[in-house]
Amino acid sequence: MHEIVESFREVKKAFYQLLSKQADKYGITGIQFKALKTIQDNPQIGITELADLMRLGNSTASGVIDRLVKAGLVERKRLESDRRSVSLEVTEQGKEVYRLTDLQYSKAIAAVLENSEEDFEHLLQTHRKIIASLEKVREETNE
Length: 143
Known about the structure:
Blueprint: H1 2-24, H2 30-41, H3 47-54, H4 58-70, E1 74-78, E2 86-90, H5 92-112, H6 117-142
Antiparallel strand pairs: 1-2
Helix pairs in contact: 1-2, 1-5, 2-5, 3-4
Organism: Paenibacillus macerans
Keywords: DNA-binding, Transcription, Transcription regulation
GO molecular function: DNA binding; DNA-binding transcription factor activity
């Protein structure tokens, strides 16, 4: 069992390093890439929700956003409904940087993972079963 957990850890690390290498070509980090994706996928998201979705502390998420704002990739906007709240929005430049990074990352992954579609489906199904089992165990231990 420890070998499986270690294997997941190594695969995750390798994918993240690959993402970081591709993101670096466009002047962002892997975590900034993930923030851009999360903001695009969640319109009017705030820092706290972003931190939760990315599993980061609020101060870490705030630092990531500060750097993205400084780079012109993200804007902070006051909500009309609540002037105290700030939402995040990816700028056109941010969308382009995200698109280019994602394109390069996808090409790199395709080159690395030259398995058949059937192998991918089997692997994905196995991962989903493991995740479901882990979530069930986690829920049972929280009760």
